[in-house]
Design a protein that fits this description.
This protein is α+β, with helices and mostly antiparallel strands. It has 2 helices and 7 strands. It has 2 domains: 34 residues; 85 residues, Immunoglobulin-like (Sandwich).
Length: 148
């Protein structure tokens, strides 16, 4: 079942990327950019799992760790924060350049429910690593019925 989930997520990411390229191409012909690509797509995400935990890694190079906020509700992880705003580099002479920050938000659909109180996160080398313990399903028990 994990293979199906991974395949589905990859196909959806490919479709999203193709649609973004289509809109960029259409609007680019008019010299208009709707929104920066980082705002539309958000940071890249990798999800791995084993029997007891989910591990989510989010690529956030240059992000300010103090600006990062994580929210977990049911089977959704929301990552919010700020990344350095990209600016065009070229041969032009710049009198002043302001390096601002661009806010981002990435909603990640998790394949199962997790224990929200036991989520742990670390940030190092531009990678946010979130470990989410799975909420184990209640075991079913059988009861013998005696007929009187």
């Amino acid at each position: 079942m994990l293979e199906l989930t991974v395949w589905k997520n990859q196909q959806l990411d490919d479709l999203r990327r193709d649609i973004d390229r289509l809109f960029d191409r259409i609007w680019g012909d008019f010299g208009i950019s709707l929104l920066p690509g980082e705002f539309i797509r958000g940071p890249a995400v990798h999800i791995a799992e084993n029997a007891t935990t989910l591990i989510v890694q989010v690529e956030l190079p240059g992000a300010d760790p103090d600006s990062l906020r994580l929210t977990v509700f049911k089977n959704v992880l929301l990552v919010q924060g700020e990344k350095p705003a990209p600016f065009a580099r070229g041969a032009d002479r710049h009198r002043a350049i302001e390096n601002g920050f661009t806010p981002f938000a990435r909603r990640i659909q998790l394949p199962c429910r997790v224990i929200e109180d036991e989520v742990e996160a670390t940030f190092a080398d531009g990678i946010l690593r979130v470990v989410l313990p799975k909420q184990l399903q209640a075991r079913s028990s059988s009861i013998r019925i005696t007929v009187a």
